[in-house]
Amino acid sequence: MKLPYAEPFRIKMVENIQQSTREQREQWLKEADYNLFNLKSSQVFIDLLTDSGTGAMSDQQWAALMTGDESYAGSRSFQELQSTVERITGFPYLLPTHQGRAAENVLFSVLVKEGDVVPGNSHFDTTKGHIEFRKAHAIDCTIDEAFDINDLYPFKGNIDLNKLEEVYKSHPKENIPFCLVTVTCNSSGGQPVSLENIKAVRELSNKYGIPVYFDSARFAENAYFVQQREEGQKERSIKEICKEMFSYGDGMTMSSKKDGLVNIGGFIALNNQEVFEKASNFTIIYEGFITYGGMAGRDMAALAVGLDEATESAYLESRISQVEYLGNKLIEYGVPVQKPIGGHAVFVDALSFLPNISREEFPAQTLGLELYIEAGIRGVEIGTLLADRDPETRENRYPKLELLRLAIPRRTYTNNHMDYIAAAVSNVYERRNDITKGYKIVKEPAILRHFTVKLDKA
Length: 458
Ligand SMILES: *Cc1c(COP(=O)(O)O)cnc(C)c1O
Hints:
Belongs to the beta-eliminating lyase family. InterPro entries: ArAA_b-elim_lyase/Thr_aldolase (IPR001597), Beta-eliminating_lyase (IPR011166), PyrdxlP-dep_Trfase (IPR015424), PyrdxlP-dep_Trfase_major (IPR015421), PyrdxlP-dep_Trfase_small (IPR015422). Its cofactor is pyridoxal 5'-phosphate. The protein is an alpha/beta fold. The protein has helices at about 20-30, 60-65, 75-90, 100-110, 125-135, 160-170, 195-210, 220-230, 240-245, 275-285, 295-310, 315-330, 350-355, 365-375, 385, 415-430; strands spanning about 45, 95, 115-120, 135-140, 180, 210-215, 250-255, 265-270, 345-350, 375-380, 380, 405, 440-445, 455. A 5-stranded mixed beta sheet has the order 2-8-7-6-5, sandwiched between helices. Strands 9-12-11 form a 3-stranded antiparallel beta sheet. A two-stranded parallel sheet has the order 1-10. Strand 3, helix 5 (about 125-135) and strand 4 (about 135-140) form a beta-alpha-beta unit. The radius of gyration is 21 Å and the shape is globular. The mean pLDDT is about 95. Pyridoxal-5'-phosphate (PLP) binds near residues 215 and 257. The site of pyridoxal-5'-phosphate has 15 residues, from helix 4 and helix 5.
């Protein structure tokens, strides 16, 4: 008999989680103003809000934590982190930050100014927030295939070179500080970018003298997809692929809460000494001295180990195959999901799931609330709430896709949990025709509204 797949780890410590009743959940949602971010974690049975900072550290990481060096300047833990980052990415200059958006804040303080445009592939929400906060614009150059959830193209995170060149041709060079490549592409469904595409972006950008930076929160998952899907990459190690990928960039911002396998942290890594020196000043104002930048020494020590673990094939296989397992179950039950299944999450297509809910009533949010009521599972809306209003016209922006993201924390849940989630989504799908009313906004902030928006039944 062919042996089935089994995880390359065993469990050393467990955390209890609790079930609740439907009546309790309905009450809690009302108290939370129908915003899943307002729930207490104890009110959630399986938490798929995000894969950010929610994973389990290994015994080796916990051991490293105990050896952290808490010196204010020049700590050994910083040096360990710096040499690990340089070995994996090739970038020699490192600035730790307290998380990914802080890395964006520091780097963009140096590079982005009013009136600039930053082309890229579906910029992440905080990234777009930091660009627009500086009165600059993010221009999405993702390939069109990304917006057809049934298109099986293997690299739906790719940048459309024609769209990118159009941006380069239609704006003066001084107004294009860099092109930003997000690996994997979160907003369009955890979809990877091919090495070939990254290389072509570099060549095109060189032609116009524009730097290339990576938003690299899930760079290891991207490298795994390259290894599995791109021609000629099968025999290469994840670390070799990462090294080549980063060789096409001038620097990166990182949210260590994703492929750093830690609960908090981020960093900027750079090739250019001048950018590093300017960014160092902003790090000191916003984050802390340049050898800790908002991170404890012990957290940098655990991150150094996490980066090595996250770039091992066996770990990535267990990670990506669990997400795929959930996705395939949902496909089996007839639920419309984005295909191919992404790296960190399964994205349910709310527009075809809930055809009776108009876009003004937030179909993906409505689906998220229904799934919580059904089974105590918390996902997150990737749709109109997240897309915010246009900064100038203040009109709602309706993105091409309206998705409910079920993000899977790393090394945290078992496949029994995946079975439970799939059954719950299927139950909501069975009663989809009875769901005829969505939600309306009662109160919202000026930017990044999805975190704090208050809603009520429409
Ligand atoms: C999470 C994330 C960020 C922001 O990082 P935080 O650590 O949450 O501040 C930026 N870009 C991408 C692609 C991300 O996934």
